Each structure stands twice: as structure tokens, then as C-alpha cells.
Amino acid sequence: MSYHQGVEGGAIHKERCKDGSPYKDLDETMDPDMRSCTTRGPPERAESISSGFLSMKSDRSMDFPLHFKGADSLRNKGPGAVPCDICSEVQAVKFCQTCSVSYCETHVKKHYTLPKLQRHTLVEVTGDLEERLCQEHHRALEVFCRTDQKLICLECSVTKHKGHDTIIEEIKQAGKQTFDRDQCRGLKLASIDVLPLPGEIQFSSVTSGSVSLSWGSPEGLTGPQKFRVTWGCDGEERSLRVEDGCNVEIDGLQPGEKYQFNVATEGEDGRQSRWISASVFTVVPAPMDLHIKQSGATSFTVSWSKAEELEKVPQCFLISYCSLGTETRSANTEDSYRTLSGLQPGTQYTISVSTVLNNGEQSKRLSTTICTNPSPPGNLVIWSYSATSAKLIWDHPDGMEDILHHFRVTWSDNTSPSESFAIKESCGIVTGLTPGTEYTITVCTIDKRNMESDPVCTTLHTKLTLKLFMQKLGLTQHFEEKLSLNAVLSIDGLTLGKNHTVTPQSLPWCFLKELMRMNVSARDVKYTPTDKKDHMKVNPLDLITALFLCSDGFLQQEMVQKMSMCQFAVPLLLPNCDTEQTTLMLWALRDIVKKFRPSSQADSKSIIEERIVVSDIPMVSFVRLGESSLSKSQILNKLLSNPQQYNDTFVHHDMECGDVPRQISDGLVEISWYFPCGNRNIDIFTKPVAVANLRGDIRSFETKFSFLCQTSAAVYIFCNELDAYSEILERRTGKAELFQVVDSQKNKITENTLRKLTTEFSIKPTNVIVKENENDAEFVKTLQSSVGDITETSPNKLPIENMADVARQSGILVDEDSDECQSARKTANEITRNIKDTIKFKDEQLPLQGQIWKELSQLEKERCRLRKAGGQEIEHYKSSLKKREIELREEQQRFEMTKAIKNITGMSSSKVERSYFLKWMQINLDNLSRQNLSDLRKQYKELCQNHPEKKDIADLDRQMCDCSLGLEHFLRELGQLYEAACSLPEDSPQRKQMEHLPGLCAQMLLDGFPIELVDGDASNIPLKWISAVLTELHTLVDSNSKIRVVTVLGVQSTGKSTLLNTMFGVQFAVSSGRCTRGAFMLLIKVNKDLKEELKCDFIMVIDTEGLKSPELAQLDDSHEHDNELATLVIGLSDVTIINMSMENSTEMKDILQIAVHAFIRMQEVGKKPICHFVHQNVSDMSAHDNNMRDRKKLLEQLNEMTQAAARMEKKENITKFTDVMEYDPDTSSWYIPGLWHGTPPMAPVNAGYSEAVCDFKKSLMQDFIKCQSNDDITHFLKWTQSLWESVKFEKFIFSFRNSLVADAYSRLCSEYNGWEWNFQKEMYSWIVSSETKMSNFGITDLNPQRSIRDVLKYLMIEASEKLSLGEKEIQDNLVKYFEKQDGHVSLVEKYREDFMSSAKTLRRETQNTVRNNLHGAVEIKEGMTELNNIKSSQAKTMERKVLALLQTCRQKKTDLSDKKLQEEFESMWEETLSEINFSGLPRRDVAQDAFLMLSGNLSRRGSHVNSILVRNNLVDCGKTDFVVKSVHWWQNAEGLAKHMDHYHHRKKLQVFCDDIITQCHELITQKVESKTDYHDTDIKELLNRIDETIKQYKKRKVNEECEIHLKLHICGIAAREFQKMHNQFIVSNDPRMCLEQSKNKYLTDFKDLFHNRDQCLKKAEEFSKLVQPAVQDYVTKMIGPDVVDEMKTGKGSEDYSTRTSFQFSVLKQLLTDGEYEKYRKYIRNYEKFVKDWLFDQIVQQLSKDSRLEKSEKKHLSEIVKIITDAISIRKTHSTIECIKTFIQNICSALGEKLVFPKDALDSVMILNSANTDQFADYLTEFVGEMKQTVTSEYEQRTDIKERLRSLPFKPQDNMFTSQFGCGEVCPFCSAPCEAGGKEHAKHFTSIHRPQGVSGWRNLKTNVLWTNICSSDVISDATFRTSLTGDKLHPYKDYQTYYPDWIITGDSSIEASDYWKYVMATFNETIAKDTDALPADIPEDWKVLTHDDAMKSLKNIFNMK
């Protein structure tokens, strides 16, 4: 049978079964000490009373139920001595019935303090304690069983006594009372009999969870047997009843636990025998799943699982292991795993694991075997790697010495399958890798059992192939198409300082930009990836290598130059890692020039200046062999640096990105130099030395190592184990002395090593330099000493140039070996190799620029200044200058092209070869000049010390100035060849031969080569040459290419060129034995992404020679030279840099004054360059703040200089510097530190210098953005031409009228003329409309409340508003025009106010016209009102009579015949006439009215005027011709003096008065022909015309008496004519006569009405006839503006766009006609000539294609349409039946267009009873017929002149007003003023003429003058006029008397060729006409042709 716990007799109380523990509530309240006691080991728990079961003796019988620990020691103390169950030694004082534990005083305390224990029941401990406990359950007797009459425990009550009658409450009430035996006995019943015991217990099967037991049958017991079996463990006991058998299987036991089994015989009545007992341990299960979790070479981890039965059982494990032949080792662990270490790799082990319980029970062992892995390789190192392979080395695995093994190498890039190979050696090479890829490489050991070790791992990022590396940096394209210097220097976003994130693609550009501005931190530019997986960090050496590989030779040169200045090491041998080719960078190094002073020359202060590649400087090389713990580059940096001046010459590991693995730069050999300064306290080495540094291990670069050994004086090898790499040293060649540099901390040098170094490698023991226990400074001193010895003693000095042979022998390429370079070098050498004496060479090979060119330059300036004319006539003197120029040019032409120039002109068309040639020329010439200058300086020094004769020193000083020979001299010769050829005929072969030269030079400029703008020797600009070059440049680039110009001015040798070079990265010469001479221009391209922002395509940088040059200081005109240069460059520039050394140096005063003069001149012509003052060599970072006071003082000085300069320039309105230009002392002043950081020559560029210059450059770029100019190369050319022509004038009295200003002024005039004409046209239309309204007042406007004066007032208000609006519109247009982003607008800024004033004047004049016209219209209307009223009254009377007669006749019953009706009408007519009072208009005395008007006009004059008026009768005036009687006596004298004619001025005045009389006569005729009545406004208009003309020509000086007689004469004529007109008007408008004329009309209407005939047809015809003259009048008024529009917008309109254009067209026509008479009219009577010429031009224009007729028809059609529309609208929308109202409405609709005569309209309205609809239809038809009739009339009229004269708006007069201008003429030659606008402050003309053309002559000889005033004003000639008081006055100061005239000096002989030709052609005719002798015509005038004159005219007026 098998029973489980709790089946029968084992039922458990439900309250105790909640968690499966019958004592849970007891456990919860148990004393913590007791709980800890119950957890002790098995022996403890077995002996403790709290264990819950009794100990079993070996006899398995109950011996002593209760056994206390230590009972033997306590028995002697008496029966009451009970030990404490907790501590076992101390006597218990209390017994807890709840815990069933005895406590001593110490341990019972918790029952009084802990709340849970306070609920327990404590009793006294007594000796009979055992009697108080249940003997079975050992619990307190708390229940009394009434059934069994005994005390039982609670457990008994629910087991054996279940269902019995029990008492619990009474016991509980007893509390802690003690029950003695008697009390208990009283509760018990009688005792029972005892049953026999079972037999001995036997265990047949014991497992981990069950026990099978059996026992014998009780003796003496028969029948059925029952047994009670109990078992328990650890205080828990179970029981069951067994029937019918003596065995049972108990399961559900805990494994590994000791169980006690009890069996008792049970009777039927429940009685039991005594118990028999036996104990047994359940089996401990073994662990499961034993396996190896981790295995290594010397350790492995074993893991297993616990037995399922023991998951919750505390246990530990015993693990033991051993290998074959070794002892077993054991270990305990509580974990289910164990790592065993200290094992032997590759060995088999047996491992066993068993479970051990807390009671010491142990399970069976679980065993397995395992082999340890082989040990892994050690110290895996990537020895070397490339883009596609890597060499690996590793150490032998530990412990594997006696075990066979090999290795496996595996690699993977994490994207592709892994690859591997096996190898026995401890090294291997991985191949086939992908460039630029990260690999994981592992190596493991494999033993003979094919077991693998743990892998050792490393990562490798393969190098990029050169192609991929270039791709990553964005340089792929440039690897084939090399980067050029131009591309690098172009202006881009980096230049503007924009925020730019550095990317791998932008990294090269950032570096180059920084390098070009010589930033010493250029190598620190880096790309910082945001992604950790991005491996594109770039080592600076890789970046430099890549850029050199991608750059052409010229960019390489510039990079090397800039790197050298920054004290960076530069490439000597450049590797290509793909091709494994190396290049010697000879060409790149070719341009480095260094100055130094060896210590040997320190006392003499002499310096040596040499080109590096040819210098004999010993080279010391530093290389690495294998590993070296020393940083070679850092050591070298310290080697070359003073402690106080450290430079990172070589890139090292601790620099920015210096630790990034190199990709392509391994094998790079860098070189740097040390140069002494001659100061022994500073110099590290006393002589120069070159230091080369090979990057990488020389084992990989044996060729380079061999090269260095052959070219170096010494080679220093950094190596820790030199003897390990002996083979490479054994293969070396060369004479270089070897040194070994070793770190003793890494490698000890033994005697054997030294011996080997000496014997095998020829390394002296003293050449082994060991770094022992010393710091770097001491070690570097040792190295410096060693290198210093080499420089002093070594004979091996091989110039870099000579290294080329060694390189070629070694298979190393040389960059100079290209065909282009060698061919160019050969050509350059042919030119320069034979030059010994540069002065002689220039005389022989460059003859055109010698004395001839200098004399030509002097001639040019003399032609402008005419200082040496003496007493000669100016034009004759100029002619002689011209003749001399021709002679000099002919002399130049006789020179044949020299061999040197042929070589220059024959240079290759290939850009590359051409660039090489120019560079070779520059190098050779610089070398030559440097040598010559050095020799001359030595001689000069010797002369000064030993032979101080001034003459010899002066000669030598001149030689030093002339000894320089540069490429500019050759280009200058080309310029002279071209200029000389330009004077030849165009078809000359010699000229054609030179035509390609400008293109050659333009291409050089485009390639970035500086071109000479100002000849530094002759101080002149070859304008034809420069013009041709710039023109060719314009064709080479986009024709719309815009440029900005920046220039620099400053004292010589203040760093101007260096500033520009740093700022723009350009190559202006700064140190070639000479300073900049003249001015050079250089072109820099702007990147396409910035063109729009900067508004330009190129930046032109102009570098100038220093002002106040010592070489020029000895010349008398040095100040003038500086003025010329300053004015030129400031005038050309958009931004000018004034460079000053130190802070506000006083030596700059003169320079500032020069600059201020130039700024004033430029401000005068509207050009305002931005200016920056740069203070150089200011080291203090607070200089800007500290110099605030200095800047304020500088501004004060500038203001003073401005005032002084303004007085000299005669611009007194300019009082301060800010009047000239926008200048802010804070933002326009820059403080820049010194160039060098330390003591040259070893000082790098100061970082502060490059940063300050960079900030300055950014500011300049912002200036360019703000700049308003928008100019192209042609604009720059024109400025250059005009500026240079202007600056050549003496004293710089600046009258600047160049072609650009002329163009800008012409455009402004053209625009203004358009605005002006639109205003005039609009106002004319308004005036016509207003006059029409006035004329129709009372007809179309029937408002009786308004008078004509009210209408006038309203119209005057409207006119004022319209005029104001028109004026504002013109002024707004002017403002917008000057705000345009057009650079030319600024040139005419000074004319803005003139045109603003002109707009005001135009408004004022138009307002006067409006007022006069409207008032005149009102007066006319008022004058006609009386007449119209009379006529209207008569018409109304007659209409009333006719209607009355009609009524009378209709009342008669008989029909009346027409005859009878006529008789009735005649009777009525006569009767009515007798009734009407015919009172006509009063007759006026016009003469009297005119006299009153004249008196009023002269009322403000004196009594003398009044007396003249009184003496004259106006009726008699004007009957004879007007004669000017006399002029002032001084005018007679002047006429005699100038013209040999006393009456010259009277004659001129007579002509003037005759012109006025003619104008007034035309006006009188126009008034008379209008057939209107006389009005006072007619005389007033005449007098106004006279006053305006006299005022306009005030220079005529009309005296008062002449003016009065002239007005009397004109008014007399007008009075008579106007009287006739008035009388005729009276007669024509007699009321009776007018009425009689209407008699037949009245009769006809009467008859029609009587017979009820339809009047529609007749009345419509009458109305159409009334409208026809109004329509023709309208068309006539509209034609005039159309004609002007035709002239100004049609073909040939450009001739009338401006007054200058008009002058050109007139002069051109005169030249084409070639008639003297026309010239005579033009000169003598310019105004009349212009009027007639304009009239003829208008007639000619209108004659084409019937344009006048077309215009008439156009306006006719317009007005007819308006009429028909008015009729149609009134007919359609009107419901009026009254025909009169209908007609009235039509008239109102047309009231602003047509003038309706009141009497004619009244005639139509009278007796009109027509039907409105029918009338409208007929009227429409008649209007159409009228149109045809008028059109026919227009077609038949052919006389255009007559038609033009009949127009009220005369186009010829308007054209004359706009083209004639102010009427002023030149005071000397009478050329008319061409200034635009009504109000201009200054008069000028484009072309002046010889004075003889106007009849001026020499008083003594009577010979006509040939002098031209434009020449006179630049000469020393004088003039005499009445203004000078008959004294001679210099022409130069003509503005003293003629301040409102600007006469620009004629700097060119050709400028006045037009008038010279006219004078020469008509000399005899002019003399005869003016009664003078012919002029002495200069010879060059006589040869002028018609074409010359036309060409001159076009050039002057800038016409094509």
C-alpha cells in the first residue's frame, strides 16, 4: 500500500492548511531567536526540543522521551533546572506554551517588547514541565477531553480525539495557571490496557521522494491487525492507519532528509501499543544536464542543472577534475556553474559534479570529459598596410611549445562573407582588400585535434587608393585636370566668411584659402564627422599630398611659397601611392627666395639673398627604421625652433588630426630650412641647413632612402633595434654620414651593438645618439650640436637643382622634365643667358622704351600743360609738339623687332607652355636683377665708406635705379611696338604684324598675370596699348562681365603689395631686389555662385608704387607724380586702401593730402570710392580702442586737408572730409599687426596678421555688395582713358568731362527731356481743353449762377494742382533715376539739383503760360459777351415775331401762297427792324491802350524812361526800320581791339534786336490772322516776349534806351495792325448787318413751319456745317504735339534726345554739306540758324510717307468718332422730345473738344421743330460726309511749311526751346552751351573752335587767330576783355571772370580737328567775310581731311 500524507488519520485543520504548513500561524508568531534555532543543522535540530520529534537510539526504542541539550550538566541542580533552548547553558525562567520553547532571562525579553510575542502564553518553568506537554505531540495541554477524561493538546483534539466532547474555554480561562497532577488526574478517566508491539522496522526501498518500509507482526495478537504509522522530519509529523498488512510505501518525502518512522499496534477500541521507531535518509538526487558552457585555452566554465526534486532545497555542489596523470582537484560551489582556470591548453580533463545538502548528504557523481582550447596568439599587430593588403605579425601562443599547431587568419568587412587562410608562421599578409573599408581581422591557433583557440582580433581601415581618396575629397576631376592658381584665387563663399560646414569635399578648398592668406593654422582645418562610423578624418599630410598631386605646377609653386612663409615643411619628394612613382618637386621649390645672414657676416651686416634650389646648403635627413619610441617630427620641430619661438614645422601626432592614420602620404619626403639671422644669441645654427623628413618606414621606401643617402650630408635614423634590420643598411649607397637615434628606455645599447654598428654599418660610436634619463630639451640640444657640426664640417652640399640627376638615376621623376617646361625654359634662357649688363641690354634689345618713350611721355604732358610755349601761338606750338611726336614715332618704327622681343612674341599659344615661359622669364630676370643689385650695393657701400664723391655716388645711385630688369620691361616694349604701329596706316603690314600683341597680353591678364598699367619708369600710361589690351580682354570674357576695382596707396615699403598678396593670394612682386614701380593690375575671377551677390564677374586689383619714393624725391615733379598716381588709382577704384605704417604716422600727412585732393576730384565727377585707412604693424590687440583719440585727430587732419585742398581745387563748398566721401573713423580704420611672428628669417607669418587681413577682406567684399556701380571692362577702359587725360594737367585744376560722364549726362538729359515733354504735352492738352471750356461758356454750361470768372478761378485751382502733380512726377522720376543700381548714375550726381531746379522752372514757366492763356481766353470771352448778348437779343426778338406771324397766318382760313407768305414776312421784318435798337460794339483806340500797357511795363524804370516815352507818339513809332543808335564807349573800344571794328558790338546788337522784331512780327501776324477782336493781352504778350528774350540773352547787354526804343518800335507796329484788326472786327460784327445776313434763313424757316415741312434734314445740315470748322480747329490744335512726338520718337530721334546729340547732328550736317554760308549762319546767328534748321528738318521728316496728312486724318477720325458716339448715346438714352434740348446736350458732351460759335448755334436753334430721332440720323450722315470733305481738303493741301506755320502749337518753336538750351555761348569762341535742363549752374560745350572762325584777329597784324580756348586754358596765354578792365588775364584763371563756364582743357591734338579742318578749309573766305587777313594755319591743320574731321566729331561726342 502506498499512502500520501494526510489521507487517513492525517487530516489537518483547515486554518493550518492555507500554505501547506500545519504550523503556519505558530511560525508567524514564533520568537525570531527560536526560528533561527530551528534552521540550524540536522544534529542541532535533532537534539532540540523544538525539533518536533524524539531522538532515536540505535536500539530504535523510546529511552527518554524528553532530552535537553546539556541536561547532564543541569541534572545536578535539581529537578526544576531546565536549560534555555536558545543558549543551552543558562537556566530557563519562562516557558512559552505558544512557542513550546524555554527562555532564559535574556532571550525572554522579546516576548515583552515585540507586539506579536506579547500575545504568547508564558508560564513558569518547573521540573514537571514534561507533564505539562503532550507526550505525543510535545505541545501544551490546552484541551480537556470529557469523552476520554484527559488533558490533550490542540493537535490531539483534531486527530485522535476528533469528535470527542472537549473543553477549551476553561483551559484558556485558566491562563497561565499551573495544573498539578491531582488536578489533571481529576480530569482523567481510568487507565487502559497496553497492546503488543509491532516487529522491527525494515526499509526495503529508499528513493529521493519515497520510502518502502515493513515490520513484523505483534506477538500474541491474532485476528485482523491494525497499525498506526507516523513519520516525520524536521518537526513535521504525519500518520496513517495500516490494515491488513505489515508494510507500507510512503512517498511525497523530501530528498536527502532524515525521516523517523514510528509504528504502533492499534486496537479496535482505539487503544495503541507503544511505538517502535527507525530512521532513514532519503536519497540525494544527482545534478542534471552537465555541459561545458565556455571553454578556453586555460580555463573553461562547467554548468549543470539542479535535480528537479531539489529546486527548493538548500544545497551545494562538489566539482572535481583531473587530467591524465595528474591529481584530482576539487572545489565546492553553491552555483550551478563553475569556471575552472589554470589549466593546460589543449589537454583533456575529466570533470565530476555531485550535490551536497546542508546535512552533508551527497548525491552520486555526474561526470564528463572536455579538452581545453589551444592558447591564442599574442600581441597581434598590423605591421603595415595599404589600400588592398595588410601585413600582420603576432607572438607565439603561450603553453603551446610542445604541442603541434598552426594558425588561421580570418578577415571580414561586415558586409561580405569572411575569408581566411592557414599559416604556420607567426606572420601573414592579407591581400585582396577593398580600399577605404573597415575590416575585422582575427587570428586563432589550431592544434592537432583541429581545436581552435579563442581568436585575437584587431580592426583595420584600409587605406584609400589615391583615386578613392581623391573622390572622397572631391578632387577626382582635378587629378586629371589639374587645379590652377586662378581657380584657387577666385572669390567664393569662403572669402565672404559665410558660415560653412567643413565637409570632406570642402576641406581642400578651406585649406587652400587659409594657405593663400598665409594663415599659420591652415593645417588645422579639419572635418569632424558626426557619425562615428564615418572614417573620413584626414591627416594634414594626406591633404597636402592630395592637393599637390591635383595642382598644376604654378599652383604648386604658390603653395610652396606660402607654406615656406608660414614655416611649414614643403614636399621634396611627392609620392603617388597608386603608381608607386615619386616626383622630385624641383619646379615647385624653384620660386622660394630666402634672405639670411650667416654669423660670419654679422659684423658687416651683409645679407645673402638666394633662390633656394640653387643654394649650396647641406641637407640633413631624418628617417625611421622599424619602430621608434621617439616622435621624429616633434624632435625636428624642437630642433629647428628656439624655445621662445617654437614652430610646428613638421606635422606630428599631437597636432589636429595628426593622429589620423595616413592614407596616401607615406613615402612623402618633406624639407624645411634653417636660416641664421646673424644674431649669435638667437641663431641655433650659424650656417643655413636643410632638414628632410621621410614619412614612413624606410624598409618600405628604400629608393627614397637611397636618394636621401646620396643627397644628404647626414642621415639620422630613428630606430629602437637597428641590428634587427641590418639588411636595408647594407644595401644603402651614398656618402651621407649615418647617425642612429635611440631611446635608451626602450633599448639598451650594448658593446656588441656598438661594435656591429661600427663594423657593418659604418656608424661611428659617436654617431649613436641615445636619449637616456634626460628631458626633450636636453636631448634636442644634443641633436642640435650634432647637426651644427655637420653644417660646419660636411663637404656634401648638393643644391636641390643638382638633385635632379640623382633622382633620375634612382627612377624618381622630376617635375621640371615636362616638355612644356623644358621648351619654355630653353626659350627663356635664350633671351636671358647672355645678359650681363642690364642697362646695355635694355638699350639694345628694348630700344623703344628708352629715351624715345620718355620723351614721348613728356610730350604728352607738355601738350596738356603747355609750359614751354613761350611766345609762340598755342596752336602752332601744339602743332610742333605733334610734329615731334610723329618724328619720335617714326624713329621707333625704324627699329626692327629685336631677337628678344621676337622670342617673346613667338611664345607658344599653349596656355601651359606660355605660363611656363613667363615664369622662367620672371625667375631668370629676378635672379639677374638680384645679382646686379647685390653687386651695386656692395659698390655703393664701398664708395660711401672710401670715396664719398657725390658724382660717383649719384651715378651709382642712378645705376641702381635702372639696373632692374623684369618681365614688365618686355611687355612695355610690346606696348611701344603696338603704339608705334598704330600711327601707321591701317593696311600697313607692320601694323598688321602687331595686331595680335594686345590679345597676347590680355590672355596673360586673364591667366592671372599682373600687367603694368602705369609705366614705372616713364610715369605714363600707353593709352593705345592699354586700351587695346582691355578691349581684347573684353572680347575674351563675357561681354557683360562686370568688374570691381580695389587699389592700394601708401608710402614705399610699407607692405602694400604684401597686404594685397595676403588678402587675395596673388603674386605682386614684393622682394625681387626692387619695389613696385608704377601701377600693376591683376584680374581675379569671382565664382559663379557669388556673381549675383557681389554684382561682378571679376575683381581688378591694382598695386601701386610707393608714394614719396626716395628715388623720386630728388626730382622737382615728385609731388606732381604722386598726385597723378593717387588721382588715377582713386578714380579707377571702387574701394581704395590707404596703407599707413604704424599708428597714424606723421609721415602720412602728405599722402593723406594727396589722397584728399584725389577724392575731391572724384567727388566732383560723381564717383565716390569707398576708402579704408589701414594702419600696419600695430601689435597691440587694443589698438583700435586705444587709438580712438588718434582716429579723431586723424579726422581733424583730414578735415583740415580737405579744406585746403578744396580751396586749391576751387570747391569752397566742401568744408570737411565727409563732404567728399562716406567715412566713419571706427569702421573705416583697420589695425593690422606686423607680418612676422618673431625674428626673420625663421619667423612664420603672424597669425594675427593673416586673421586681421582676412577680416579686412570680408569687409571689402561687403563693400562690393553695397557698391552701386555696375561697370564692365569697357567702362574701366573709358575711365582709365579719361582719368589719365585729366590728371596730366598742371596743378590738377580738374575740369573732368570724360566719355563716361558724358554718356551718363547724355542719358540723364535724354530721360529728363522725355519727362519734360510729357509734362508739356499733357499741360498743352489741358490748356486747349480749358480754353475750349471758356469759349463754350454760356453755351454748353447753362448754369446761371456761375460767371466766367468763377470758371477761371476753378480752372486756375485745377491748373495749380495739375502743375504740382506734374512737377512732383518729374522730381520723383529724378529721385528714382538716381536711385537706380547703375554705376553711371553716380557720375552725374552733382547735376541732380540742376535738374530739380529745372523742374521747378518748367512748372513756373508753364504756370505763367496757363495763367496768360486762361486770362486771355476770359478777356476774349468777356469782350465777346456784349456782342453775343446783342445778337442773342435780336435773334430772340426776331424768333418771337416770326412765330407770331406764323400764328396769324395759320388763323386765316385761306391757304397762303409762298409769295403771299413772303409779303407778310417782309412787312413783319421791316416793322421789327424799326423796333430794334442796333447799338454795336464801341470802337477802341488801340494805340492809346497799347501806350498805357507799355507805360505799365516800364513803370518801375526811372524818369529818364518816362521822358523818352512822353517824347514819342506810339502811332508814329515803327514806321521805319529800327536802328540801334549807340552802345557804350567801352564796347566800341572792345570791338576795335578785338575785331578792328568800332561798331562791332552795335552790329551784333542790331542783329539781336532785328531777331526780336521778327519774332514779334510773327506773333502780330498770327493774332491778326485769327480775325478776333483786339485785347490788352495781345500787347502784354508782346512785351513779355521782348522781356524774356532780353533776359535770356543778358550777355548782349541791351542798354535801357535801346530797350525802350525797341519796345516803342514794336508796340507802334502792333498798335496799327491791331487797330486795323479791331476795326475789321467791328465792321464784321455789326448787329444790323449780321441780322440782315440771316433774313433769308428766317424766311425759309417761316415758310417751312407754315407748310409743316420736315426740318430735320435742313437743320442737321446746318448743324454739321457749324461743327465742321470746330472739328478742323480741333485737329489743327492737336497736330503740333504729334509732330514733336514724331521728331523725338521716330527715325533719327536720337539727334534730338539731348542738346549734345543735337549739336552733333547739326555739325555733322554742316560738314556733310560743306558750305561756308551755312557755317556763317551757324556762327553769326546761331539762334536763327537753329530755328531754320529745325523747321527744315521737321518739314523733311513730315514729307516722308505723308506723315502730316496721316496725323491730321488720325485726329479727324478720333473727333468724328467722339461726335457720332455723342449723337448715338443721346439718341439711345434720351427721352427728350425738344430738339433744342437735344442739340444742347450734344454740345455739352463735346464742350471740352469743340468750340461752338454762339451766333451760329443760335441760328440752328431758332425756329427748329425737327424730330430728335430723325435729326440724329440725318446729323450722323452729315458728320460722315463732313469727314470725307475735310479729309479731301487735307489730301489737297501740299504746302507743309504753310500748314506748320498755321498751327497754334508750333512744333519748331517747341523743338527750338528744348534744343537751343540756355542760349549762352563760350565767352572766347562763341560755341553754344550744351548743358541740359532749364536751370544749370555751369555752362559747357563739347567742342570749342578756333577764335578766328568767329572773326577774332590779332590787333596788330589783323591776322585771324588760330588759338582755341580749350588749348588756351591749359597754357600760359592771356586774354583781355571789358571785364578784365582792359588788362591781360591768364586763360588758366578764366573762371575769375566767367565762373559759370567750364572749359575743359584739350589734352589731345585731335580733339578739335573738326574746327581745325573748317578753319583751314575756309580760311580765305572767313578772312574776306570778316575783313581780316587769313590765319597762319599750322601745318598739321592743312593735312586734315573730311574724314579726319568726321572722326574727330564722333570721338568728341562719343558717337559710333
TrEMBL record:
PROSITE patterns: FN3 (PS50853), G_VLIG (PS51717), ZF_BBOX (PS50119)
Start and end residues of each B box-type domain: 129-169
Domain (VLIG-type G) ranges: 1040-1284
Entry GO MF terms: GTP binding; zinc ion binding
Key words, A-Z: Metal-binding, Zinc, Zinc-finger
Compositional bias of kind Basic and acidic residues: 11-27
Superkingdom, natural source: Eukaryota
Chain ranges of the Fibronectin type-III domain: 197-285, 286-378
Sequence segments annotated as region (Disordered): 1-50
Family to which this protein belongs: Belongs to the TRAFAC class dynamin-like GTPase superfamily. Very large inducible GTPase (VLIG) family.
Cross-referenced PANTHER family: GTP-BINDING, UP-REGULATOR OF CELL PROLIFERATION-LIKE
Protein name per UniProt: Interferon-induced very large GTPase 1-like
